[in-house]
Specification:
The protein is mainly α. The protein has 15 helices and two strands.
Length: about 425
Amino acid sequence: MIFLVEIMLGVIVLFEYRNYKIIATPTAVLGGVYFLFIPLINVFGEKLGFLKIEQRTMIWFTIFVFVLFLSGSVFSVYYNRCLQNRNGERYDLDEKLMRKEGLIWWPFLFSLICYVISLLQVIQRYGLSNTKSNAFGPFAHIGFLSRCLLPFIMFYFLRTRKWRYLIAALVNVVALIMFQGKYHLYIPIAGFIVLFLVTRKNISIKKILLAVIGAFAAGIILFVSVYTIIPNVLAGDVSWDSMVGGMYYSVRHFFHYLFCPFICSNEYFANPVYRTMEEGVRTNFNAIDTLLQQFVGQREFFSPVITLWPRVDTLGTTANVGGLFSESVLNIGYFYSVLYVAGIGVFVYYFIVKCLLKGRRIVTAMCLAGTIMMSFFCNYFSLLPNIECLVYSYLFDVFLLDTKREIKGISFRKITLKWGKSQ
């Protein structure tokens, strides 16, 4: 069955590449993830003590990837027709981003300063070891914009080799790690990978493999930092045995995080609508539900946390994440999940195609691309902080990046902004 599923996933990814001529589309990315992890878990994961992915789960993964492919096919005809009129050339995103360099850098720097201030407020109120998910106040909300723009700052560093971009990106990464919200870091990194791929006309397989290896390395470094280095330093225990033992736990925990959504999907696909349909809808649309409760003044907030914790390994370790596909089935059933995934697919493809052809809504497109790229792990489209970042990205595009203005420079002596019309 694995061999048949791998063939089907490979064919879908190849057809997607044939439609868009790039590998940074939602179907290509998610299809590639499942193509890689299904044999990795069932062959090598079992040797580490993890359970296997069931045949039914593999089939449903393939079906939902195909649904995503169909939602993207809606735009592929228009996309290819536009490319034919342009002799196969996409919009030059690299040129626009370099022209709008100041317009991205200064808002990022301002929002980063706000985010650091928010971190200091949280440390002062809750302590250094209790910063997780405790961001509050206007500085935290303004600081979310830095997360949206982080992929572009990383892009500018690779493009210009200016140290200010590297330093600012590292400060942002450290702040994100200190807040201990791992997905707040993973999504911008995924967005940067997509941005890197779409701004390069000729990408070799070697560079793609290096990007994948780099993403794995970044994930391991993040887990070692969060679960070993930071706790040990705070506890004052930096002995060799303690560090080595912590690193072994961190690396295994990293693979646990990678494998658990695929393995948990065995249970989630077997239990459609495990609560009530109303609760499932409120879970999948939790961001909208939370805002409605806030606006009408009822404040009857609903927790979207999944209460079903399947076993993922022979040690009895459990988890409660399954990715966009299986979590949707768990909450709203198979039929509505197909419609839900198709709707997300159309929404994401619309902005990506608009970005590739017209160079518009770039920040929104990269935010959506990073989000759906990480959707193999969790349904991030249901989380309010993610939707908030998406709104900020769209507003930034509409009122700044896609306008005919750009920042030529800033004079701190006179505290004036020098604006200029883009050519």
